[in-house]
Amino acid sequence: MRALRALIRAIGTVILVPLLLFEEWGWGPLAALMARLSRLPLWARLEDRLRKLPPWGALLAFFVPMLLLLPVKLLALFLFGHGHAASGVTVLVLAKLIGTAIVARIFQLVEGPLMRIAWFARWYPRWKTWKDHVLTLVRQSRPWRVVRALNRRIVRGWQRLRAG
Fold first, then answer.
1. pLDDT digits (tens, 9 = 90+) for 85-138
2. Which of 5, 14, 82, 138 sits most deeply, having the most CB atoms within 10 A of its CB?
3. Using CA atoms, how far apart are residues 144 and 16, in angstroms rounded to an integer?
4. Cα–Cα distance for residue pair 56/64, rounded to 1 Å
5. What is the crossing angle of helices 118-140 and 85-114, to 10°?
6. Helices 142-163 and 118-140 sit at what angle, rounded to 10 degrees?
7. Which of 24, 9, 30 minimizes the C-alpha distance to 136?
8. What does the alpha-carbon distance between residue 38 and residue 45 come to, in Å, rounded to a whole number?
9. Which pTM does this prediction carry?
10. For residue 62, what are the contacts with CB-CB under 8 A and spacing of at least 6?
11. Average pLDDT score over residue span 4-20
12. Do residues 53 and 117 make contact, with C-beta atoms less than 8 angstroms apart?
């Protein structure tokens, strides 16, 4: 039973790590990009309404975009299944980018009310601690360090090429 639990945890981690890395990379910048839309009067009113939601309304506002993107992700699977891999990847990447941008911004707007929901206030810090721990382990791993070093070399080479 212990071995099965370890196997499930390992598989779950392998599946979740790329998603966590993407979320970590995109959460702040994409939320900031969405925040720029608040310059538009209609968008500013929508954000103001989100900020004023009661806790359970905030929870609904937080999860609805994820649910709305589910059919788009199913479309991507359909495209994969019918031999349109490039289209499927494009749809999936766009859905992930747009979904992350919207959910990140909504979370910024409704984090206060969400923290007034007892179970959310209890589990969110645990999730964040676990996620940060996993990402720290990934960043300390040899493959991560090798890829980061290679990336820095490519960036420096590109900069020299552009300057020269």
1. 999 999 988 998 888 889 899 999 999 999 999 999 999 999 899 888 888 888
2. 138
3. 16
4. 12
5. 130
6. 70
7. 24
8. 8
9. 0.74
10. 103, 106, 107, 110, 114
11. 79
12. no
How far is CA 134 from its chain centroid? 15
Q: Which helix (H) or strand (E) holds 158?
A: helix 142-163
The CA–CA distances, whole Å, from 40 to 36, 44, 47, 61 equal 8, 6, 10, 20
- Chain position carrying tokens 């749809």: 91
Distance CA 58, CA 153 (A): 44
Closest CA to 113 of 72, 65, 70, 53: 53
Position 73: which residue type? K
Give the residue-averaged pLDDT of 38-50: 92
